[in-house]
Amino acid sequence: MSVAIFDSGLGGLTVWQAVTRRLPDLKVSYYGDNANAPYGTRTADDVHALTVAAVTKMWETDDLVVLACNTASAAALRRMQEAGVPPGKRVLGVFVPLIEALTERNWGDNSPPREVAVNQVALFATPATVASRAFQRELAFRAIGVDVEAQACGGVVDAIEDGDMILADALVKSHVDALKRKMPKPDAAILGCTHYPLVAESFQAALGPDVTVFSQADIVAESLADYLSRRPEMAEGGQARMVTTGDPVRVSSRATQFLRRPITFEAA
Ligand code: DGL
């Protein structure tokens, strides 16, 4: 049994890094579909097809796949789980742990929705995730009285995948300005794309110090640690391979730049 993390590209590395810090003995692989990134401007059917293809490939060597991609989680996770996964295999997403953190719930607490500390929540995500309304749907199962204003952050993932952080920062600022015109005083902001922690400081600076910014990396790592403590067999073995459908040299260089340590990808 073994664990692997999936993203359309480099964003899931923020989750991979948090998981390797939280669970240093776990051998966890990474699969980036960089050849097909970004997913966030594709249709739900397209994202579903790409995610199924990638996860099916990952299941050849790994048993538990974490979709460290909100766009894939929104468009594909429920459909994949409803269609049934092969025996001994699992696929999990990143939405539910985030919403459990926002609504101060423990893992798997399925009690009725209740009032929570935050009332005005800004959601920053890809156009496909925003269009899916998956975040609002999952939140409605757990909380009442929360206004969510969503901002589709076109261009940010492309800029990050291209390593153009000046453009990424400028786009973040303009998306935060656009959000504030719709919701001037959010209590909390959700970075609903795993690429965005790479520009978390720009989000926090543009939002101001009074807004609590939730980003997924540590939340998902904690939730995975909790899951594996109840299913330790899922954490045995593993290979810790870094695989990409894109150009391994280019992807390795960007990953090394973002994580500030040498990361070597191989071709899928
Ligand atoms: N990092 C991804 C997410 O969390 C995907 C972004 C994209 O490929 O557009 O949504």
Rg, Å, rounded: 17 Å
Domain count, please report it.
2
Residues in β-strands, percent: 15-25%
Q: Give the number of DSSP strands.
A: 12
Order of helices and strands: EHEHEHEHEEHHEEHHEHEHEHE
Give the overall shape, derived from the CA principal axes: globular
Produce the secondary structure layout.
Elements: E1 3-7, H1 13-22, E2 28-32, H2 44-58, E3 64-67, H3 70-83, E4 90-92, H4 95-102, E5 114-115, E6 120-125, H5 127-132, H6 134-142, E7 143-144, E8 147-152, H7 156-161, H8 165-182, E9 188-191, H9 200-207, E10 212-215, H10 216-230, E11 242-244, H11 248-259, E12 266-267
Parallel strand pairs: 1-2, 1-3, 2-11, 3-4, 5-7, 6-8, 6-9, 9-10, 11-12
The protein binds D-glutamic acid.
Question: How does this model look, in words?
Answer:
This protein has 268 residues and is α/β, with parallel strands linked by helices. It has two domains: 3-94 and 217-267, Rossmann fold (3-Layer(aba) Sandwich), CATH 3.40.50; 96-216, 3-Layer(aba) Sandwich (Rossmann fold). It is 45% helix and 17% strand. It has eleven helices and twelve strands. It has helices spanning 13-22, 44-58, 70-83, 95-102, 127-132, 134-142, 156-161, 165-182, 200-207, 216-230, 248-259; strands at 3-7, 28-32, 64-67, 90-92, 114-115, 120-125, 143-144, 147-152, 188-191, 212-215, 242-244, 266-267. The strands form three sheets. A six-stranded parallel beta sheet has the order 4-3-1-2-11-12, with helices on both faces. The longest helix is centred in the middle third of the chain and has 18 residues, at 165-182. The radius of gyration is 17 Å and the shape is globular. The structure holds D-glutamic acid. D-glutamic acid (DGL) binds next to helix 3.
